[in-house]
Amino acid sequence: PIMEQIEAAGYEAYFVGGSVRDVLLNKPIHDIDIATSAFPEEVKTLFPHTVDIGIEHGTVLVLSEGNEYEITTFRTESDYQDYRRPDEVVFVRSLEEDLKRRDFTINALAMNTKGDIIDLFDGEADLKAGIIRAVGLAHERFNEDALRMMRAVRFASQLDFSIEEQTFEAIKELSPLLQHISVERIHIEWIKLLLGKNRNKGIEAFVLTELYQYCPGLNEQAGMLKSLIELAPYEIESEEDSWVILCHKLSLKGQELTSFLKKWKLSNKIIDNCKKVVPSVSFRLEHEWDTAHLYPLNEEQVLMTERVLKILNVSYDVSLAKKKYNELPIHGLKDLAVTGSDLIAHLNQQPGPWLGRLLKTLEQAV
Ligand code: CTP
């Protein structure tokens, strides 16, 4: 109804971006982006309840019947600076102008109110063939926003798509531009890559394009990154798990572990988790059934240890480990109330200071 209202006022309105791509791929949609030829002030006059959520970028939030819709005015490329998306944008009336500034053909599709697809760059064919291809000249797209190179490798992982040759070559050449991008934005794409269903595809492209050389703590780590390809073929379930795996693979401990995670500006919660779970994982790899390492952990961290070990290809069932632990003969000793007179009789010795020391040693051993 929102798009129809915009059209009734004489403007154009389309679904654009990831939501159109995901509908065509039969995947669940996260957020719906609507693009329009109406300028932000015009959008605001059409609806009684709006919020300026990013009006300088052309986005107005429309509140209607309990729902929220993000409506963005068609934009074109303005002067990009420092290889980042521009702070100032130029609004235009043409859908084509708006679509041609987008990153990849699969993200440059639009859908109108009737459900017709507007496909100016053969995005549908690329969707069918599983190809990530820059819109127009790849060099231009990546010069406009260098983060798009990370987006390419994360889409490869999420969608199981291949990066088209010229797009790939452009990334390889321009990968140093990633240095201009904030760690927070790189972080979002890197985690999406690792959590993607086809992470090996993404990791392989991440290494071959040399993007990894410009990510905190990952430069010169091609060997470690390639070793991630040998992980068991399970999905990594959470961002926390992925940091534990990385720290383990990088053999990080103590201060080195903290400083690696700080370079990525991670929360104290993630850092604390890694500090406990990474040693727990290493301990388990060295001691088959010993569960002593589990005791400093909380329940979530025990489960995390189990999940991470599974991905590292080590079978580890916490409940089985606990059972084995309880079966160890040492537990019987806890119930043995060995007294001083038992020892005197058994060892056939006179009492003396040795007795107290021996009793203490036995108690500690138990
Ligand atoms: N876009 C772009 N360049 C970027 C980021 C976004 O051209 N650096 C365009 C693409 O057309 C993209 C749309 O803006 O489809 C919306 O971007 P965003 O919501 O960040 O990503 P999605 O493609 O929707 O992917 P996701 O499903 O992960 O949200």
Please characterize this protein's 3D structure.
- The chain has 366 residues and is of the alpha+beta class.
- The chain is built from 19 helices and 11 strands.
- A hairpin with a 4-residue loop joins strand 3 (50-54) and strand 4 (59-64).
- The structure holds cytidine-5'-triphosphate.
- Cytidine-5'-triphosphate (CTP) binds at residues 17-18, 30, 33, 102-103, 107-108, 145, 147-148, 151.
Labels describing this entry:
two-stranded antiparallel ribbon; 10% strand; 11 strands; 19 helices; single chain; seven-stranded mixed β-sheet; binds cytidine-5'-triphosphate; 50% helix; 366 residues; alpha+beta
Strand order of the largest sheet: 3-4-5-2-1-8-9
Major pleated sheet: 7 strands, mixed
Strand content: 5-15%
> What value does the average pLDDT take?
90
Q: Could you name the ranges where pLDDT drops below 50 across 5 or more consecutive residues? A: none
Helix content: 40-55%
Query: Which hetero ligands occur in this complex?
Result: cytidine-5'-triphosphate
Total helical elements: 19
Structural class: alpha+beta
Instruction: Please report the total strand number as a whole number.
Output: 11
Basic shape: elongated
- Could you state the order of secondary-structure elements as H and E? HEHEHEEEEEHEEHEHHEHHHHHHHHHHHH
Give the termini distance in whole angstroms.
Answer: 73 Å
What is the rounded Rg?
29 Å
